[in-house]
Design a protein that fits this description.
The chain is mainly α. The chain has one domain. The protein has 6 helices and 2 strands, in the order ααβααβαα. It has a two-stranded parallel ribbon with strand order 1-2. Helix 1 runs antiparallel to helix 2 and helix 4 packs across helix 5.
């Protein structure tokens, strides 16, 4: 793996884990090529759960969650958690597209978290 690939995957991991502010990560991701071949970073139920928990705690707003999900959706360097790809993809789509699906609010966030725990 090249240092460029390592840097890219580190940025993607930071995005998924929200380990740095989006305002810091997004501009760095924007300069990367859209095309990517190889193994990506796995978006797991736990990433979605942690983001939704931060929303419930008031750390992130619904627009923060939407922006975060939009940055992840469609990335070739992100893979969905093995064994629950469809669920992860559906929830990510909902979070990225609240105008087309369901707006995020506290009861909806709790319901989505519960959905992960029973799957």
């Amino acid at each position: 793996m090249t240092s460029h690939e390592t840097k890219r995957l580190t940025l993607v991991r930071d995005l998924l884990e929200l380990s740095k502010p989006l305002e810091e990560i997004v501009p760095q991701l924007a300069v990367l090529d859209l095309d990517y071949e190889g193994d990506g970073i796995e978006l797991k139920k736990k990433h979605l759960t942690l983001a939704l928990q931060r929303y419930l705690q008031g750390v992130l707003s619904h627009s923060d969650i939407e922006s975060w999900a939009n940055q992840i959706e469609g990335r070739e360097d992100v893979q969905f958690e093995s064994g629950c790809e469809q669920l992860v993809e559906e929830v990510l789509y909902e979070l990225a597209n609240p105008d087309l699906t369901k707006p995020l609010n506290q009861p909806r966030a709790r319901m989505l978290i519960d959905r992960f725990s029973i799957s």
